[in-house]
Amino acid sequence: MFKRIHRGASVGAAFFLLAFLSFSRPADALARPKGNVIGFIYAQDGTTPLEGATIKFKCLTTGRVFESTRSDVYGIFKVQGVESGIYTYGIVTEGGDFNADDILGLKVDENETAKLSIALNPYDQDVAAAITEVTKGKDKNGEFLVGMIADFNPQTRIAQIRVVKGLLRLNDRIRTKGISTDFYQDIHLLRVGDSPARHVTSGQTAALKMEQDVQKGDFVFVVSDKKILPFFLTPLGVAVVIAANGAVTYGIVKILDVATPCSPKR
């Protein structure tokens, strides 16, 4: 049976995933059981099957990639020989490529099958261009100057960030740096005016609660999480898991610095 995915459960999911993966014995690493992943790929509406798409899973600890069959007329794909672990993924379609909007954990025993359904959400033209600008414009440290602090309320710690290029997205990691400021944090809530937003593009101002005090004029950078590099530099959109069975843990925002049980590179 599939279960519907509820967005936003991140910290609890991370601990649950690490808990059920930690029972694998290190001595078994070279002979780790291999299971399968089967599922459906849909268009943005979550119901129209997408034919001819290929999904690629990448283990975050080894870099090993597992590639699916091309989805059939019903949108069905299959990946064989997958090992338990924490993965990012990307999807190749005839119209363009899609990066995962998060990561997932797979727990499969010998010949067991993990099941999931994925919907593809294309970006609009402005967002796609902004994401490409950020991805290609990051410096050697993986940072991109996206804007600056336009205003700050020290009582509420709400800052107004003026985006001057690229974009800010929900769950981005940012660095705020100024004369007396230098710290990192994640974006858990982003607002434009009175409305929550998933992204803010050039020319807009976003309201964001800061974890430390900042000063007007401080610079704001988007920072890469080097553990979770995207599959594609110029994606057409994002791939979102919309349903899964118990072998899949999804919605994890943070990867802790612990070993995950993907088999070593061969």
Question: Quick recap of the structure?
Answer:
With 266 residues, the protein is mostly beta strands. It has helices spanning 11-21, 125-137, and strands spanning 3-4, 35-42, 54-59, 65-67, 76-82, 85-92, 97-100, 103-106, 113-122, 143-153, 158-163, 167-169, 173-177, 182-186, 191-192, 195-196, 199-201, 205-209, 219-223, 237-244, 248-252. It contains 2 helices and 21 strands.
SSE layout:
Blueprint (H helix, E strand, L loop, with lengths): L2 E2 L6 H11 L13 E8 L11 E6 L5 E3 L8 E7 L2 E8 L4 E4 L2 E4 L6 E10 L2 H13 L5 E11 L4 E6 L3 E3 L3 E5 L4 E5 L4 E2 L2 E2 L2 E3 L3 E5 L9 E5 L13 E8 L3 E5 L14
Parallel strand pairs: 2-9, 7-20
Antiparallel strand pairs: 1-20, 2-5, 3-4, 3-6, 6-7, 6-8, 8-21, 9-20, 10-11, 10-19, 11-18, 12-17, 13-14, 13-19, 15-16
Describe the protein.
The protein is mainly beta and 266 residues long. The chain has two domains: 3-123 and 235-252, Immunoglobulin-like (Sandwich); 125-223, Translation factors (Elongation Factor Tu (Ef-tu), domain 3), CATH 2.40.30. It contains two helices and 21 strands. The protein has helices spanning 11-21, 125-137, and strands at residues 3-4, 35-42, 54-59, 65-67, 76-82, 85-92, 97-100, 103-106, 113-122, 143-153, 158-163, 167-169, 173-177, 182-186, 191-192, 195-196, 199-201, 205-209, 219-223, 237-244, 248-252. The strands form four sheets. Strands 1, 2, 3, 4, 5, 6, 7, 8, 9, 20 and 21 form an eleven-stranded mixed beta sheet that branches. Strands 14-13-19-10-11-18 form a six-stranded antiparallel beta sheet. β3 (54-59) and β4 form a beta hairpin. The protein is elongated. The model is unreliable at 6-30 and 253-260 (pLDDT under 50).
